[in-house]
Amino acid sequence: MPGEPCPLSVVGEIRPAGDHVTHRYRCDPRAAAVTAHLLTRPGLTFPGIGAPRRHVFTAPNSSPPPRRTPLQPALLRAPAGGITHPSLRERPVDIVRANDLRVLGDDGLELYAPVEHEANFQYQEIFEHECYDQFSLSESPTIVDVGANIGMFTVFAKRQWPGASILAFEPVPRTADYLCRNIELHGLSGVRVVREAIGERVEDTSFVHYPNMPGNSTRYPEDKALQVSVVKERHPDWDVTAQYEPEYLTVPVRRLESHLSGLAHIDLMKVDVEGAELEVLRGIADDQWDRIDNVVMEVQDLHGRMAEIRELLEARGFRCEIQPSPMVYPEILTYLLLAQRGA
Question: Less Cβ crowding at N or C end of the chain, within 10 Å?
Answer without folding.
Answer: N
